[in-house]
Design a protein that fits this description.
The chain has 305 residues and is α/β, with parallel strands linked by helices. It is built from 10 helices and 10 strands. Helix 2 links the parallel strand 4 and strand 5. The protein binds NADP nicotinamide-adenine-dinucleotide phosphate (NAP). Belongs to the aldo/keto reductase family.
Length: 305
């Protein structure tokens, strides 16, 4: 189960020859003037996986950070995401992200949310407005599939899909390509065992976002996490990341603080015991960082647990 060399670990995907590094730098809420330096510091510290999105409004600076690091593009796993107001313009959305990032291709292009928002509506870029009545994520996926083979993406996937929406997508006759990844919220406060098992049963890799519990995380003061961290001489953050990797998903810790970026990557040469993993699994307190209240439609139906 456990792996001592977590930073070199990769998970195979359902695309021949492709595997995703277990640890990636997250960049949501990483602002201007800091995100480029964070990406550069991460790559110089050994990270080889960067997670961004058009919606984070920082792709340009992420691209600058990649170039400043001196790490060759082909050594880096780069993920970006199609924003909700771009669902009817998938090709254009990808081209815009590639232009922002200053790269020829991304390794993984995700449908950020199963919500196709009309870009003409006021506030559309903040999730407000209305969804198209004549277009939903099945239509978006049909267009996503056309990107494969263009050389602009190595894999395509989804994010924030619960079981209900995945079943609908996978059972639609137009679905010829099973998503390589479903990027979902995963931490001890939202461990989603049913959704992870469903993803696995369909050959879809689960990638865990907000692995530390996001900003002001209540996990850092959780007694179980604290006790395990203290007994091992590790930080609560390192314990949370080791737990994710040992559970079998990739983790995407975000930080704009160089010392934290480095510490979050110090995961080799030690592991959680099976008993420690089980203790973390048994933490009863539930919380979710990203719900669907900010969207005009529901996307979670209790099927993301
Ligand atoms: N697909 C989606 O819809 C979706 C949704 C949410 C997130 N994501 C992805 O997942 C990534 C991670 O999620 P997240 O940004 O919500 O949260 P996270 O990685 O769980 O937590 C980030 C927070 O933890 C702090 N932190 C990081 N390392 C620390 C350390 N060693 N000690 C103390 N504090 C530390 C960071 O502060 P500083 O930065 O100030 O150091 C920041 O406030 C995102 O950045 C994004 O790439 C995707």
């Amino acid at each position: 189960m456990a792996t001592t060399q977590k930073t070199a670990k990769r998970y195979p995907l359902n695309v021949e020859g492709l595997s995703i590094p277990a640890i990636g730098l997250g960049t949501w809420q990483s602002g201007p003037g800091e995100v480029g330096k964070a990406v550069e510091a991460a790559l110089r510290s050994g990270y080889r996986h960067i997670d961004t999105a058009f919606g984070y409004r920082n792709e340009k600076e992420v691209g600058q950070g990649i170039r400043a690091s001196g790490v060759p593009r082909e050594e880096i796993w780069l993920t970006t995401k199609l924003d909700n107001p771009w669902h009817k313009r998938v090709k254009e959305g990808l081209d815009k992200s590639l232009e922002n990032l200053g790269v020829e291709y991304v390794d993984l292009f995700l449908v950020h949310w199963p919500a196709s928002i009309d870009p003409e509506q006021e506030g559309a870029n903040d999730g407000k407005g209305e969804v198209f009545e004549d277009w939903d994520f099945v239509d978006t996926w049909r267009e996503m599939q056309k990107l494969v083979g263009t050389g602009k993406v190595r894999a395509i996937g989804v994010s924030n899909f619960g079981i209900k929406n995945l079943e609908r997508l996978l059972s639609d006759p137009s679905c010829k390509i099973v998503p390589a990844v479903n990027q979902i919220e995963l931490h001890p406060g939202n461990p989603s065992p049913k959704l992870v098992a469903y993803n696995t049963s369909k050959g879809i890799h689960s990638s865990g976002y907000s692995p530390l519990g996001s900003s002001d995380s209540p996990l850092y003061t959780n007694d179980t996490i604290k006790a395990i961290a203290e007994s091992k001489g590790k930080t609560p953050q390192q314990v949370l990341l080791a737990w994710g990797v040992q559970k079998g998903w990739s983790v995407l810790p975000k930080s704009v603080t160089e010392s934290r970026i480095k510490a979050n990557f110090e995961l080799d040469g030690w592991e959680l015991t099976e008993e420690e993993v089980k203790k973390i699994d048994a933490i009863p307190d539930r919380f979710k960082v990203c719900g669907d209240d900010w969207l005009p439609i529901k996307v979670f139906f209790g099927d993301d647990e």
